[in-house]
TrEMBL record:
It comes from the Eukaryota. It comes from Galemys pyrenaicus (Iberian desman). Belongs to the G-protein coupled receptor 1 family. Belongs to the chemokine-like receptor (CMKLR) family. It is a multi-pass membrane protein. The lineage of its organism: Eukaryota, Metazoa, Chordata, Craniata, Vertebrata. GO terms for cellular component: plasma membrane. One of its GO terms (biological process) is inflammatory response. Keywords: Cell membrane, Disulfide bond, G-protein coupled receptor, Glycoprotein, Membrane, Receptor, Transducer, Transmembrane, Transmembrane helix. One of its GO terms (molecular function) is G protein-coupled receptor activity. This is Chemerin-like receptor 2. Gene3D superfamilies: Rhodopsin 7-helix transmembrane proteins.
């Protein structure tokens, strides 16, 4: 039994989603480097949570409840919802790192946490792709856009994107599992318990599906849309809101910068099946690239504030409205207190006079 557990432990350490390469049994010098990587990754994840929760909540509040519902606001609203849901689960991952990669939350939360991370990645890139295609059609084919670009159709697209993202993240619900070893519980990808060929096949298939569907195909689509858009805008002298264009482009670039290292290391990780030459490099690269990917969830609201004049205007107006309402409540509260004190004094005087 002990030999089986040890074999499983060695096996699952090679197939990680994040930070499962770290081993307390490593030599001292290696542990120093891994310890530094560990704390940097932990800091980036904490930063993503601290900045992302209020930032995405603000975007959801404005675009979901304050602004007029348009096709564009629905795209960005769902993008913020995907990031917000993921960030709500991020403390589980942060706790996992802080406790030296011990997972005390049970198997179902192990599955759910990984599923939400995958859902966020696919939903984000799918919505960015939809935004890019929508912007291209809206500007270059206005007649087609006017005919089909409706709130009803956009809602159908949104439902389809969420269903597709859930389908792509589904394998995490099936393969993620927990394993106890040396009083430590790990959350890992259990592709198969015994057969190395099945493990190899499943790891390769899921990795390449994730890279192609969740990165390369959307990247190619967005690149074609923006290249054609820039070319035809110049050729036809079409008027375009530069601020809106740069906001979308900045959001897309942020996604690429944050997620590209993650996908590169996911592909590189496949080499661990054949040799362990790059094992130490993967120990450093996978946790850092994963935390960088998580950081993307807090960047979009910051980009909206820095670039979008419309968002800045509505943000200032909403803050002014909140402050005005708060001051009005305080003022009313003070007035009511003063009135109550005066009434109480008047009643006391009447009682004394009656006596």
């Amino acid at each position: 039994m002990e030999e089986l557990e040890e074999a499983l432990y060695e096996e699952f350490e090679n197939y990680s989603y994040a930070l499962e390469y770290y081993s307390p049994e490593s030599d001292t010098e290696e542990n120093i480097h891994l310890g530094a990587v560990h704390w940097v990754s932990l800091a980036l994840s904490c930063l993503a949570f601290v900045l992302g929760i209020p930032g995405n909540a603000t975007v959801i509040w404005f675009m979901g409840f304050k602004w007029k519902k348009t096709v564009s606001t629905l795209w960005f609203l769902n993008l913020a919802v995907a990031d917000f849901i993921f960030l709500l689960f991020l403390p589980l991952y942060i706790s996992y790192m802080a406790m030296n990669f011990h997972w005390p939350f049970g198997t179902w939360l192990c599955k759910a946490n990984s599923f939400i991370a995958q859902l966020n990645m696919f939903a984000s890139v799918f919505f960015l792709t939809v935004i890019s295609v929508d912007r291209y059609i809206h500007l270059i084919h206005p007649v087609l856009s006017h005919r089909h670009r409706t709130l009803k159709n956009s809602l159908l697209v949104i439902v389809f994107v969420w269903l597709l993202a859930s389908l792509m993240g589904g394998p995490a619900l099936y393969f993620r599992n927990t394993l106890e070893f040396n009083n430590h519980t790990r959350c890992y990808n259990n592709f198969h318990e015994y057969d190395p060929d099945i493990i190899l096949m499943r790891h390769h298939v899921l990795t390449w599906v994730k890279v192609i569907v969740g990165y390369l195909f959307p990247l190619l689509t967005m690149s074609i849309c923006y290249m054609c858009l820039i070319f035809k805008v110049k050729k036809r002298s079409i008027l375009i809101s530069s601020k809106h264009f740069w906001t979308i482009l900045a959001v897309v670039m942020a996604f690429l910068i944050c997620w590209t290292p993650f996908h590169l290391f996911s592909i590189w990780e496949l080499t661990i099946h054949h040799n362990s030459y790059f094992h130490q490099l993967l120990q450093v690269g996978i946790p850092l690239s994963t935390s960088l990917a998580f950081l993307n969830s807090c960047l979009n609201p910051i980009l909206y504030v820095l670039i979008s004049k419309k968002f800045q205007k509505h943000f200032r107006a909403s803050i002014a409205e909140i402050l005005k309402y708060t001051l009005w409540e305080v003022s009313c509260s003070g007035t009511m207190s003063e009135q109550l004190r005066n009434l109480e004094t008047k009643n006391m005087c009447l009682l004394e006079t009656a006596q």
